[in-house]
Specification:
Helix content is 28%, strand content 24%. By secondary structure, it is an alpha+beta fold. The protein is globular, with a radius of gyration of 17 Å. Bound molecules: 2-amino-4-trifluoromethylsulfanyl-butyric acid (MF3) and cobalt (II) ion. Cobalt (II) ion binds next to loops.
Length: 262
Amino acid sequence: MVVIRSEWEIELLRTANQIVADVLATLAEHIRPGITTKELDRIAEEMIRDRGAVPAFKGYRGYPATTCISVEDEIVHGIPGKRVLKEGEIVSIDVGTCYCGYYGDAAITVPCGEIDENRRRLIEATDLALSRAIAVAREGNTVNDIGCAIEKTCKEYGFSVVRDFVGHGIGSAMHEPLQIPNFDTGKPGVKLRSGMVLAIEPMVNMGSSGVRILNDGWTAVTVDGSPSAHFEHSVVVRKDRAEILSFTEKLVWGLRDIKGSN
Ligand code: MF3
Ligand code: CO
């Protein structure tokens, strides 16, 4: 069953997601050549605990860190460690929190120093795909409208959507039953209703859509070694337009072109 959240539950989800947004904004400022992914993870954990929340990923199915940091051909679930970021790389950061039993989850992809034009377009496409997906996440539309918006945007750019991972319902668990594919499934799927809370998270590869998992059991990489980008927002479905719980003005991402793209 898909849960409809009350306004007080949404308030707690908003707090959890605002902590995520704050952490992402700070980590984005720290991304530069020479920093290790482990150092970024340390900053994230400290910020989350300082704000009275707990890292939602740590310990989840044995996951060992606060963040997922996925560099270049890593799509998602990169484990922070000794890796030193280099000029020209693209870095996806995914953060999850739990605040008073309610979950926050969002992700961004940012450049490390100067990046080439293809990588810049990949980030733009993924960010725009998320914005267009959010723009159709309103009452009366269906789950498949979200996937269609994402897939269409990626095709426009000539990139491919990852099909092995999906977005999800989020609330009093990080992953709730509703799955949100990032592509056209050919069926309308569940009808969206006000008060549903969704984590929408397109993952887009510059090359083919294939995925391989590294021996660490977590890191998902592209089979062809091409770079990959990932953006995620947690949103509440509303009557006219979704409310983005993980939005912050400190970092404007995932809100391009939201008007007029319905
Ligand atoms: N945003 C990711 C997701 O929704 C984060 C999960 S990472 C994990 O699945 F380590 F917690 F599994
Ligand atoms: Co998620």
